[in-house]
Amino acid sequence: MRPAVVLLSGGLDSATVLAIAQDRGFSCHCLTVDYGQRHQIELEAARRVARFLEAKSQRFVKVDLRAIGGSALTDDIAVPRDRDVEGGEVPVTYVPARNAIMLSILLGLAEVVRAVDLFIGANAVDYSGYPDCRPAFLRAFERMAETATVAGAEHGLPFTVHAPLIDLSKAEIIRRGVDLGLDYGLTWSCYDPTPRGLACGRCDSCQIRRRGFREAGVSDPTPYDS
Question: Which of 8, 6, 11, 36 is nearest to 127 (CA)?
Answer without folding.
Answer: 11
